[in-house]
Amino acid sequence: MKRINLIVICFLVFLSNYVLSNEKEKYLKIREIIFNSFLKRNPDSIYYKDEEKSKKWNYEQGLILEAFHQLWIDTKDESIINYIKKNLDYYIDSAGNIRTYKLADFNLDNIVPGRACLFMYDITQDKRYKIAADTLRKQLKYQPRTNEGGFWHKKIYPYQMWLDGLYMAEPFYAYYSKMNNDTTAYDDIVNQFVFIYNHTYDEKTGLLYHGWDESKTQKWAHPEKGTSPNFWGRAIGWYLMGIVDVLDFLPETYSRREELITIFKNVTTSLVKYRDKKYKLWYQVVNYADKKGNYIETSASAMYIYAFIKGVNKGYLKNNFAKLAIESFESMIKYFTQNDKNGNINLLNVCQVSGLGGNPYRDGSYEYYISEPKRINDFKGYGPFMLSSIEIVRYFDNKEKIKVLLDYYFNHEIKNGKQYHYTWEDTTNSGFSQFGDIIKNNNGLIFSLKTAPTIENLKNYNIYIIVDPDTEKETDNPNYIDDQTIKVITKWVKEGGIFLVFANDSGNSEFNNLNKLTSKFGIIFNGDSKNRVAGKDYEMGAFTNLPNHDIFTNVKKIFLKEISTLTLKKPAKPILVKNTNVIIAIAKYGKGLVFAVGDPWFYNEYMDCRRLPEEYENKKAADNLIKYLFNKCKQIKK
Questions:
Q1: Least crowded by CB within 10 Å, which of 127, 139, 602, 637?
Q2: What is the structure's pLDDT at 9?
Q3: How far apart are CA 381 and CA 368, in angstroms?
């Protein structure tokens, strides 16, 4: 990783009068300082120099390695791969065995480094990492559970679920399941979050208690509810980080994603009420700001910052949470970091450890939590500090990117229990995965919308796409475009949105309600079926006399079959016409734009020549379309 003059940069960044016109550049420098400071202190391996027991396979290493993994995603710096590999190889031998790890302990904490194993296996195809990950998955298979199916936190803590454990196990479990196409595991993963939420949620505060004892035998357990007595900040932080990371691996079309997102919204919203007004951070025991002995605790605060800003980046939280996160991050740097003589940044006020039960016994009382020692640069705080810096950079990076939203509401076909057909996730012939890749390769971001569009849920997106609205033949209870939808979309386009409509031919697309919408822009789908193709006679679907338009730059031949043609009136104009039939049209409406074609066109089957001969250039046309529309978006922004 590139080394910079930390003394000079720290001086520039952290002085109160430091201003950069480019916010992204500012946070890039801060991110670099945070990571380089860690490498200065830990150049070779991740452990505490004053703690011999830290030289073993453990969750703190896994947390730090995940931060480096995320940094690699953004930088592709090969030195990061070497650092992760070196740390894993201290423990993973030539046969894939994990030194110092014991499966029989059934300790969820030991699962965390498995994420780095999966990443390294994906990058290197070194089977040692796969074997190590398989071992950790085997632990989860046999992990003791509560009667309803929740993982015990550890074998030594029978019938107990702790919030901490959700970060320890579930992101790895989800990553492993996705990598191995084990979709049956997703319900089990979501259940872990739901079970402990149901048992630890407090209606009065909206917060979650640290732990729950199903047996109600622990001294710390409420005699009726089984909950521990206090809201420990870091425990809630682990839980939120677990949710927001697990969502990375659950398919957009998976039916229970929204269940997790709703829980995530509930807890993050509740936490805002307990944010300190001066420091804009959170306390060790979250709801007792004014109680003697309580203090601003930076690991919990960093975890909340990470959850907030990543929640915004992923579209789970509204943009006001980004403002809160960035304010909190700035405050943490101002009040709770120090620079040493070498210019390295040090994080203060990190609680070293907290738990429940054990020997000596931890009773979960307020007095217990505030009595635990603090440690400068404790990995449990510094790791989320690193992750927060990454997500803040991504936030400013995302602000510069075009955001493309694909409808999953009017097109909502289900097969084998999940949505398919013209979705980003569908990699089969019927999917839009390759179109999504083209958008991302042009520095765009892709999202999906599972509900009817509203002013609120469209306002943060530049482009909105509806493909092939359902008929009763395709879906038992289709969601039809209604008057409210028409009002919302026309207003959004008028204010600068770009609306793409990919319909279909007669019998495969709903036209009556769709035309009520598109007629507002001077476009009517005729509901016919032109350019029909017999078998593999692809020439019947060929277009070679292409117009002089940006979409067809350097494109000689495209394929479109079974198309609904268009009838146009002002302000719509044709782009592609064949034998007097309008195939593709565009309409300028207010500040925005509408693009329409009577075919899904850019689905996988006709993008990568799976069926088509190579001379067909649908993929190039798709890339041209995205470049054209992105350029229009930038013009509209100005």
A1: 637
A2: 46
A3: 19
| Cβ–Cβ under 8 Å, residues 233 and 282 | yes
52 Cα distance to chain centroid: 36
| Mode of pairing for the β-strands spanning 572-578 and 581-589 | antiparallel
Give the relative orientation of helices 257-272 and 186-200 as an angle to the nearest 10 degrees: 30
SS3 for 154?
Answer: strand
> Could you tell me if 598 and 565 are in contact, meaning their C-beta atoms sit under 8 angstroms apart?
yes
DSSP state of 43: S
Closest CA to 557 of 573, 580, 541, 574: 541
> Considering the entire predicted model, what is its pTM?
0.89
Asked if the model's pLDDT at residue 31 lies above 90, the reply is yes
For residue 561, what pLDDT is reported? Answer: 92
Residue positions counted in the chain: 638
- Whether the CB-CB separation of 562 and 533 falls below 8 Å is answered with yes
Strand runs (DSSP E) across 100-253, as ranges?
160-162, 211-213
Catalytic residue flag (residue 105): no
Catalytic residue among 89, 109, 164, 476: 164
pLDDT for the residue 18: 41
Strands 444-449 and 211-213: unpaired
Q: Is 608's pLDDT higher than 90?
A: no
